[in-house]
Write a structure and sequence with these properties.
352 residues; alpha/beta; TIM Barrel; 13 strands; 16% strand
Length: 352
């Protein structure tokens, strides 16, 4: 982390976490945030679900909920960016405070509840996106929707023309009963509608399914079966957890989804299980607790074709991406891998 970034992070820590997030986005828009530009190499370049990535490290949904800082993120060094979640209609989300730093645990708890500007406003920003980036949108459902399953397809139909990929998010713990859509029958029906909408796009794009880390063994098996038969391009494993095991922070009892370091092992085990159940026939994007090169590499060896992070940026800043990628390149070279793809799944057994 550079001196300017350290100073900026120190100032952000003095603010309420949600205010600090807004300030970070304003810093990106203003151009004062240090950005490394494109980070790539022959070893780091990879292809996931037909997407050509300069490197396998992405920013997860939630950092840029409303697609407000696409141009700066294009220069952030990350191989792909996911924005959102977007719902058909704008909604304020849950009451504040709804974001908490768990500094002792290098973690965060949020209960945002899909606060966003809605697909009309977000779609207008996506239409002006830089084209030399790989950009995805997390699809969500309105809290008061009469047909939540239809909401996902509605957002895809509106925003799909401006995207490189989309993610069906049925795993946020902050919209009541949303996770019920991960059940086998409900998920199959929901994805059928989304995939029909995808087929009707002028340029069909890969659709990923994002799952929770709190599924039991049968739930993971059901997700694997549905993913293999529904036509989705891959799975993102995982979203935040409701578990509070081992936390030390005074905010440990706050309601919402836990992200960051405490999620790493739990999410990586789900990733490895899913990779085994799908027999590596579907690419998996690993997310949850990634804060350094070793953890990104562990996700890849557990079965992830690419990796995402978000919470670690709260503690280490945006230049963390380039630092992780430099370390990942060295780890791949150390172990004799010429490409990221060669390393995928080579350490899966360690997590089963």
């Amino acid at each position: 982390m550079k001196l300017l970034e350290k100073a900026g992070m120190a100032l952000l820590y003095r603010l309420d976490p949600e205010q600090a997030h807004g300030a970070a986005l304003r810093a990106l828009r203003s151009g004062i945030a240090p950005l490394p530009g494109c980070v790539t190499s022959d070893r780091l370049r990879t292809t996931v679900a037909g997407l050509d990535l300069p490197n396998p490290l992405g920013i997860a949904a939630g950092f840029d909920k409303n697609a407000e800082v696409l141009k700066p993120l294009q220069r952030s060094g990350f191989g792909f960016i996911e924005v959102g979640a977007a719902t058909p209609r704008a909604q304020p989300g849950n009451p504040k405070p709804r974001l908490f730093r768990l500094t002792e645990d290098q973690a965060a708890i949020n209960r945002f509840g899909f606060n966003n500007d809605g697909m009309q406003a977000i779609g207008a920003r996506l239409a002006r996106r830089p084209h030399d980036m790989v950009l995805g949108l997390n699809l969500g459902a309105n809290k008061d929707s009469e047909d939540r399953a239809a909401d996902f397809a509605k957002v895809l139909a509106h925003c799909g023309p401006y995207l490189d990929f989309a993610t069906v998010n049925v795993s946020s713990p902050n919209t009541e009963k949303l996770r019920d859509l991960q059940g086998k029958e409900a998920l199959s029906a929901l994805l059928a509608g989304v995939m029909q909408t995808r087929a009707e796009l002028e340029r069909p794009i890969p659709v990923f399914l994002k799952i929770a880390p709190d599924l039991d063994e049968q739930g993971i098996e059901d997700v694997a079966e549905v993913a293999l038969t529904s036509g989705v391009a891959g799975v993102i494993a995982t979203n935040t957890t409701l578990s509070r095991e081992g936390l030390r922070s005074k905010h440990a009892g706050e309601a919402g989804g836990l992200s960051g370091q405490p999620l790493f092992e739990k999410s990586t085990r789900v990733l490895a299980q899913l990779s085994t159940l799908t027999d590596a026939k579907l690419p998996i994007i690993g997310v949850g607790g990634v804060g350094n090169a070793e953890q990104a590499y562990a996700k890849i060896r557990a079965g992830a074709s690419a990796v995402q992070l978000y919470t670690a940026l709260v503690y280490s800043g945006l230049t963390l991406g380039a630092e992780i990628l430099a370390g990942l390149e060295k780890l791949l070279e150390r172990d004799g891998f010429d490409t990221v793809a060669q390393a995928v799944g080579t350490g899966r057994e360690e997590w089963l």
